Amino acid sequence: MKTILPDYTNCCVNVMNSLSKFWGLHTAHPTLPMLDKYLLKDYKNVVVILLDGLGQYALNKMLAPTSFLRSHFVQELSAVYPSSTVPATTSFKTGLTPLEHGWWGHFLYFKTLGQTVNVFTNNDMCSRKKVALDNVAQKIMPYTNLLDLTAEHNKRTAKSYMLCPVEARDDFHASQVTYETFGEMCNYVKTLTNLDEDHFIYAYHNFPDDCMHKYGVYSEESSKLLIDLDSQLENLCNECKNTLFIITADHGQTTLGEVRDVADLPELLDMLYILPNGCSRATNFFVKGECKKAFESLIHHYFEDKFRLFTRKQVLEQNLLGMGTPHDEFYNTFGDYLLCATDNCEIVCSTLYGHPAPSPIGVHGGLTLEEMRVPLIVIDT
After folding, report:
1. String of DSSP letters for 154-172
2. Which terminal CB of the chain, N or C, has fewer other CB atoms within 10 Å?
3. pTM as predicted
4. What domains sit in the chain, N to C, each tagged with a CATH number?
5. What is the mean pLDDT of each run of 10 residues along the chain (381 residues)?
């Protein structure tokens, strides 16, 4: 499979910095020239719709060139890395890279707790039970949501809203509207954009990602879902006036072909002082100091055919998690090595649960083109 490293001059970080510039806020990173041209106009509403998992490859394969979304495609974007929902959606909300906001992985080790925690559900990685401290990630690594900044400081006195499914509610953002279905989300966008006030709306939807995980990236179910989303979005855009719609994704997906269980390598686990974490296609290893050379040799022997190993130094030097100043907690949550998928394989550790972990059909988090390239779709109404 072909692979690509993230491009932090052409990703969601730059999209959100273009919007920061439009609303008269501070920009932490370069803006996106293509989007800046659209934003020269004086829009009453700006709506960002994030379709989780909609990679460029899936878009091109499952929708016709004449479809609504493909006919409004303007350019490809890079995903941030890891190509996963936690780092990407946090970059959308902050305009910062994963290195800066600190939410770089789904399961992060928090030194003050001595636990590895699912940053979205607040469950311990091994026991799957809620940890004692509520909202661990939010308390240890709080961030400022751009929508809140827009509401407080923008030059147009626009109102900002975040729309999301109930299970994806963001405790950081007050002006939230939760919904049950994609149609309900579209109705909220239509209602808000037709009010008298100016609006900045960020709308997140967990499809097609959930469907692709369950049925496969290019399955009939995923194809039908995309066709339906395409139709609903066309109807929505036709009903909203003086609005700029920016439709994109956090990452793409690829089809899982192989699972490797590090529990089958007890000699590897003996080299670690914390169980592997991060995610299954961008796996984080905390390695005992005296074992690093042996660890590298073992990884290259068992995994180099479908993974690429980065040291922490290489991660920073090659800007794998982005440019900027590392978050204060980065050196606590990030280990000595990151093992990144370059093919259709994922890593599990059945030791964590006492039984083999179930694997989805569609996966993401790696460096393949399917996962790392996402569309930028713009509709000017």
Report:
1. -TT--EEEEEEEGGG--TT
2. N
3. 0.96
4. 12-103+141-255+368-380 (3.40.720.10), 258-359 (3.30.1360.180)
5. 95 97 92 97 95 98 98 98 97 97 97 94 90 91 88 75 85 80 97 94 97 97 98 98 97 96 94 96 97 98 97 98 97 97 94 69 98 98 94
